[in-house]
Each structure stands twice: as C-alpha cells, then as structure tokens.
Amino acid sequence: MAKLLLAPLVVFVMLAGWVLVQRLYSGFAARHPDLGPFRPEGGGCSCGSGHCEQPLPVAPPKLPSAYKHPT
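Request: output the structure for the sequence above.
Response:
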C-alpha cells in the first residue's frame, strides 16, 4: 500500500523539482544577459541533426562610450 502512495508522490516531487530548476535558470539568465539569451526547453541547435533550421539573430557589438567614431 505504501508503494502505491509513494510512486505518485515521487513523480510529483520530480516534476516540481524540474519546474524549480527551470525558474532558477530563467532568473539567472535574466540577471546575467551577458552570458547569452535564455534558451527555453524544446528548441535550439541540437534539435535538427546538429544544425539550426533558423539561425539565431546576432546583435552587433556595442562600442564603448569613450570611443569616438572617425569621421
């Protein structure tokens, strides 16, 4: 009887733990945008035989504020 009640509890705890990990990861990505964009589960480059179907947009590098453009 205990095993019958323990199995759904273990599954629920595992799923709740996974949601917690996803929230922690998205919060970390929001606090550290210099490390790259948040990549939600279910996408990215590993889904298409080692290549992306749609390339990720790349932002141009930002110039330092003290830099003066030669004109």
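The mean pLDDT is 77.
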